[in-house]
Amino acid sequence: MSQDLTTLLNPNSIAIIGVSHEPQKVGHIVAKNIMDQGYKGELYFINPHLDRVLNKTVYKSIVDIDAPIDLVIHAVPSEIALNSLQEISQLGIKNVVIYAAGFRETGDDGKKREELLIAKAKEYDLCILGPNCLGFINTSRHINATFLKHSSPKGNISVVSQSGALGSVMIDHFIDHNHLGFSYFISLGNKTVVDESDCLEFLSQDSSTEVIGMYLEDVKDGSRFRETLAKVTKLKPVVILKSGRTQEGSKAALSHTGGLGGDAEVYETIFKQAGAVVANSYQQFIDILKVYSFGKIPTFRSVLVLSNAGGVGVLLTDELVHNHLSLVTITEHTKKELEKSLGSKGFKRITIHNPIDLLGDASVFDYRQAILSSIQQQDIGAVIVLLTPQANTQIMETARAIIEAQNHFIKPIYPVFMGEHSIKDAHRLFEEHHVVSFDSYEPLPSMINAIVESYEYRPKQPPSSHSPETLITLAHEQQIKDILELASSKKFLNLEESMNILHLAGIPLLPIHHVHHKEELDYVIKKLRFPVVAKVASDKITHKTDVKGVVTNIETVQDLKKAFNDLSKIANSEGCYIQKNVKGNELFIGVKRDNVFGPILVYGLGGIYVELLKEVTQFVYPFTLKEFTKKLETTKVINIIKGFRGAPAIKPQQLYEIGMTLGFLMHHFSDIQAIDINPLFSTDKGLFAADCRLILG
Amino acid sequence: MSQDLTTLLNPNSIAIIGVSHEPQKVGHIVAKNIMDQGYKGELYFINPHLDRVLNKTVYKSIVDIDAPIDLVIHAVPSEIALNSLQEISQLGIKNVVIYAAGFRETGDDGKKREELLIAKAKEYDLCILGPNCLGFINTSRHINATFLKHSSPKGNISVVSQSGALGSVMIDHFIDHNHLGFSYFISLGNKTVVDESDCLEFLSQDSSTEVIGMYLEDVKDGSRFRETLAKVTKLKPVVILKSGRTQEGSKAALSHTGGLGGDAEVYETIFKQAGAVVANSYQQFIDILKVYSFGKIPTFRSVLVLSNAGGVGVLLTDELVHNHLSLVTITEHTKKELEKSLGSKGFKRITIHNPIDLLGDASVFDYRQAILSSIQQQDIGAVIVLLTPQANTQIMETARAIIEAQNHFIKPIYPVFMGEHSIKDAHRLFEEHHVVSFDSYEPLPSMINAIVESYEYRPKQPPSSHSPETLITLAHEQQIKDILELASSKKFLNLEESMNILHLAGIPLLPIHHVHHKEELDYVIKKLRFPVVAKVASDKITHKTDVKGVVTNIETVQDLKKAFNDLSKIANSEGCYIQKNVKGNELFIGVKRDNVFGPILVYGLGGIYVELLKEVTQFVYPFTLKEFTKKLETTKVINIIKGFRGAPAIKPQQLYEIGMTLGFLMHHFSDIQAIDINPLFSTDKGLFAADCRLILG
């Protein structure tokens, strides 16, 4: 159920239950934080055992306060917080923050406590942030309702985090920098009521927020989150840092806040498909937030590099290419401009290509001329200006020249001033002028890639533009239902049943014929032409190749009979399937059900290589043709699509539609747990499913 | 030719030709640098147009100096430097540094100038550093013979660099840090005489150098470098940063100092096989040098993580796993120790697993107890202590506890104190006590991986322990020579000739029979048993599959005759080859010739998948079985070796020996330019080459 956070995050009055005069206690720190930050609303302290704290009256109980309260902050242990909810609700209070740990994250007892909390929240219609959280910060309203050490400078970055500590680290960073700060910081904790989607909704409408950052370990409601995220990224950039990318990481995350982490690639796919920027580390998360906070954004992949150090230019180039960025080719026109503007140096000493090596003695004049003559070129996505502090390097002058150039250009200029001692002041100056600078080149290429990628993925139309529903007629729907119902006691359908469903769903396939007795072979042969394939028929054999259950390239009746005999002798054999033998490259398509996000399509190379290579790529249903083709470009499957070893090219659209149809089948029929098509033959007549397995669950 | 650098880098007297009184000129800066650093030897200034510079007499010419000169520094343009070499030699001077650019790196004229320089150096027996370099620093002797802006603090790090600017960046970093500095910094420039191998030899014997860093764009003498590096890494750690990893990077490097960059993976393989630490970025290069400079080294992969921020612990865990590091499993004994030492907190709130989450309120007591009770565990390679500045975090106290623990333990403890404002002083303290610390977790896992990897690769015996020479008898050697000589006018050998050479070299193969006329089929069939494979025979067809030139699974005489007919009709066909049809997984082995390092072995999945997947792994000949098996573990080939889909496991040794034999063939017969075996069948009877192509050059 979605929550409106307006009053919780912008309360006109706050009551803190559990204030303390011990400086190390949460009940003291939060009271002090709210006062120190200069909150203008009403503030009430509650503790039955105290009279005054921080020179303010302390009430014995919340019922003693004879005034409306917008928000209650619980700085008390879990049991006390739980027991007070009814009373709070009876006073007409809607919003509660609970800091206490001791819920889902601590085992079975905690889990029960959390279930009780959720039930009470529902019963009393409470909007609860937490528990097991650090509270929130709203700098516009001067509210620091956390027990963090420092308060955050006011800024245009809002962060929603499943880790409170991350907030402390960010604030510690902001304090030492210019123009960086939170608009809101929201610590989610266990997300019993308020979740990431609620926060996204709220922040997307908040005028003080220019960019939204999220640190997530899991997502509460997959489909709502996906929908909300896709909507919000159209309004504001959303940068996501997700932990639990590896199995070990997921295990650690699980014990951390007790979330049920989904598959890492599925999350990344969801984020990208919805147009978010995916950060691969904390440092990159901060860098990207800074880029959006300062406002000049790289939106395409071509980069121009200027440098006074050839070697570092090469290291940077390696890193750019590694991150799928390209070096702009310098046009003849720009070349001439550069030569003209650099004077004798341009003519005699510099070979003008990208990266442009201005040599160790590069002056501010050289840098300025090079920037001004090259940045005009149409196809530049970003400019990187590398500087190493050499004997005659004019560090501050060059910094000023870059700031001036950046003021006049919409494309971002990123100074990489390397070293430490000599370049500190320059970095301070850059920040004062809202220029994002770096003291080494490493973080930059991967950061630009992450940002540009989000623009490339951001869908122009919603993914439902191609409606796979039209592929399945109502009549067929009933037939599919019948097959599934008949098989409902089984764990999976046999090959015939599985292929039948594919056929009814409109997926092209190579027909199969089940032969139980040798006598039926003659009949089958009349319908098929040689060569044919024979496969063992059995409900009990999963990998037919492993038991030598597949005979290919059968050319004669004699050979076919021999194959039938051989296959019938395999344990658990129920005769065999006969199918036309086609030539083509083998692909794999499967669909599986994710607990959080629903149907996930998996594409890869087919045949036995699925398991040998374990190289697949995933898509969360539904997805657009554009997303599909873009992501496929980065996989080996693209080689087969483009035509490989004599086989003709195939249209990605065909492959896309089969995937969408499988996704729809799973979306529509909740009994289906997984479908594997392997191989899907890519032939000169198109794509054909040759084998299939449908798992029920 | 190897150079002894002792006098060049430790001169008792230096003459600078081209001193200047203009503060921005190289001839002024270097003079000032040497004086400022406090050089104790004799220093002479030379400039025909000046009388005094920096309060010192200036000689008109070098011949006017009536004293022995150990080193001449040329701060003059290229032509003047070139013309003075004869005079210098006549004075009995051996060592010269040339700063001037304008050689190989600037095109054809420069290339000629460089050839002239090399010829003169040889004629006059001069040891020249440069040209196009920045000179060198020797802090023990107080020599800063560079034109860098700052002088370096004295330290135990020596760096040899093909980029002078990198030295300026490192010094700029050292100045602001404690206990970091150069012992030597040597700027290589164009490496006309002194090269990286000379520097390695020298530094390996230098007692002030604890660790050697190298920034390389290429290597001058591949086999000498390889040999020297393998020798030196047994004495001292060598950390290498190589640029030109990508094609674009190589292009940029090429124009930078004009080096002929070899293939990036070949370099990396060489470095690793020789026991060097390979840094993947400048920042990592610095971090690794710092680790060796401070002295506590991680040598195995298991890591223990302590943290006061669960979320960041998860992010770190992801990164550790991503870098092939593992989280130590905490033993029952350690668990009990921890529970005991942490008191009530240990019992009630912390689930003890790795990462150990000490929770947001972790005190110095908690940190100290956790470190002391866990670090005793046997199998820990390194400990990472994560700290985020939360309300009650005892930052400096915890820093001191870590330093104390590190003083008593040989295993490295890496503090990751995150943030900026609150943790600066702690990082300063760590550095003062030689503890390598980080302000975010990102760089650490990849750094540990790079260091540990070098210990895993470092060979216990030299790679020649298994001598492939024994595989080829002398009689066979003559036969191989004969085949190659007969074919010397051709670009490649045909299948028969190629397979013949494999056979003579002792590589197991599936015999082939060349059938020119249909009449010969009967004879062949008597020797082989069905099923067989028929392949088109032709000197002109490279990819037989592409022209439908391979028929597999032939079971009858009738089918074989049909196949022969079909294959004979293909353009350029010269009949066909008949071979036994075997079942097995297909591998690929090839060998190619690298200009710098000689024979390179390439292993991959075979059949048509070589080109579809383009996934191969390389080894530089010769290599040890240990290196081979270790590197193979990271590839898909390992799946086939371990036995895949019914096929039995094969011994890596067989695969290794075939590769070493191919390497020996290429090493021994200079006419061979490349050999491809594809497929190499992995069957239950072992490995068999089924097809082969040998390229001459």
Defining key terms:
flat; alpha/beta; 7-stranded mixed sheet; homodimer; 38% helix; 697 residues
Secondary-structure map with pairings?
Two copies of one chain form a homodimer.
Chain A: H1 6-9, E1 13-17, H2 26-37, E2 42-46, E3 52-53, E4 56-59, E5 71-74, H3 78-90, E6 95-98, H4 108-124, E7 127-129, E8 135-138, E9 143-146, E10 154-161, H5 164-175, E11 182-187, H6 196-204, E12 211-216, H7 222-232, E13 238-242, H8 247-257, H9 264-273, E14 277-279, H10 282-294, E15 302-307, H11 310-322, E16 326-327, H12 332-342, H13 344-348, E17 356-357, H14 364-374, E18 382-387, H15 395-408, E19 413-417, H16 424-432, H17 443-457, H18 474-486, H19 495-504, E20 512-515, H20 521-527, E21 532-536, E22 550-554, H21 557-568, E23 576-580, E24 585-594, E25 598-605, H22 609-613, E26 616-620, H23 625-632, H24 637-641, H25 652-668, E27 672-683, E28 686-689, E29 692-696
Parallel strand pairs in A: 1-2, 1-5, 2-4, 5-6, 6-7, 10-11, 10-12, 12-13, 13-14, 15-16, 15-17, 15-18, 18-19
Antiparallel strand pairs in A: 3-4, 8-9, 8-11, 20-23, 21-22, 21-23, 24-25, 24-27, 25-26, 27-28, 27-29
Helix pairs in contact in A: 3-4, 6-7, 10-17, 12-14, 14-15, 15-16, 18-19
